[in-house]
Amino acid sequence: MTPRGKFITVEGLDGAGKSSHLQFIAESARSAGYRVLVTREPGGTPVAEALRNLVLSEDLDPIAETLIMFAARSDHLRRVIRPALEQGVTVVCDRFSDATLAYQGGGKGVPERVLQHLIDAVHPGLAPDRTFIFDCSPEVARARLEKSGRALDRFEVEGIEFFQRVRSAYLAMGQADPQRMLVIDASLAFDEVRRRLAEVLLPMFSDR
After folding, report:
1. Which CATH number fits domain 7-201: 3.30.420.10, 3.40.50.150, 3.40.50.300, 3.40.50.2000?
2. Among 6, 20, 156, 184, which is 20 to 30 Å from 141 by CA?
3. How does the average pLDDT of the chain come out, rounded?
């Protein structure tokens, strides 16, 4: 029987730099002999990508937004994540349910009990094996987004207070579950963040 693959997720504010390190995590696993799949949320399948476009372009109330997020997640899990894990593939995912807890829960006030019911319905018994939270202040994240020069989506244009709530939610989750979630100071220089990340990844993938 093939051992279940590792499930690794990457979280953080828009502009924290998490996407810059996503491929490094994947390449570290590949270099250690793991088969790796890189994906993202919302997205990862044609249906989920269509729902992503809807969420990023339409003005939705928080509950509607949350339900769409979990609809996309359900399709993503069924078609991509679960089959890969069952085949022993390491899945590296840009955001997962922790993002919904932080953005729709912490940021927009959707009750935690509602979010937990949806988590229990969509992926009962499945949680990431390791989650990296790239943390920086909303001000630093906003400056990086503006420096990128690209058009910002509906979430990225939210005010600083919104992102303060999102950040607080992420930090609270990291404190509550330190065995799964590792908070990385993403306000440091890129090379220093990468060095610290490499130190953590080495023992994770040293069993082959």
Report:
1. 3.40.50.300
2. 6
3. 94
